[in-house]
Structure formats: structure tokens, C-alpha cells
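Annotated sample (chain length 142).
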Amino acid sequence: MTRDNIKMQRGFSLIELMVVVTVIGILTAIALPSYTEYVRRGHRADARTALLQAAQWMERAATANGIYPKANVFPENLKKVSSDRYAISLDADDSTFTLTATAQNAQADDKCGNLTLTNTGLQGANGKNEGDGNYDSSCWGK
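Output written by the structure step:
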């Protein structure tokens, strides 16, 4: 057999393969946190929507009855967020209320933590309200 008759096998060298693996690792390290934050932001939007719907229900009930309803009559369907990453709770007396969307499951590590909304429309996130120092407005803004 001569050299011309033997076909040379071609393939990837170990170094080429390691370069590809390294590039994929770097892209994953950059993309995964961005994607995770994007998903969490979407679930925060669901929670904000649920808080606003619950606040609207509270205002309609107060208009009909003259006082805000207590937590024991707060409807079950308003306590759940469609994404199941937040649970809505109510703290109310006759003239005020505070709704809280408590982060749970995969959302528990979210930078915004729990979202709040009061009867005056005051929005809060992570234990801070609008106008407080260190309030992250992106929690309600995006």
C-alpha cells in the first residue's frame, strides 16, 4: 500500500474540542443569569398584575360597603398568582389595607423580594416603599 492509496482520517483535535467547550461555557455563564433575571422579571409582572386586581376588588368592596373587607372574606382566587411563584396576602382594617405578594419557590431568591401595595397606591418591594432610600424602582417599573 502506498501513501496515496490510504485516505487520511480527519477529525477534531483535543485542543479544538477544548476551545469549543470553553466558548460554550463562557456563553452559558453570561447568558444563564440574564435569562434567569428575564424569567423572574416576567413573574414579577404577574405578581404586580395580581396585586392591582386585588386592590381593585378591595376598592369595589369598600365602595359597596363603606369599609375595606377583612382578610377572612378575601377571595381565594385573588390569593394566587398564575405563575405560582407568589402568594397574595391581605392586612386590612376598616380604613386601610396592605396587599403583599410573597415570593416563593424559585422566585424566593429574587432581588425584589416581596412586593406590596397599599390602599393609597404606595408601592413597595423588598421591605422598602417608594420614596424610601435604596428603593429599587425597577421592581415595579419593569
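Annotation: Strands lie at 86-92, 97-103, 115-118, 123-125, 128-129.
Annotation: The CA atoms of residues 21 and 134 lie 40 Å apart.
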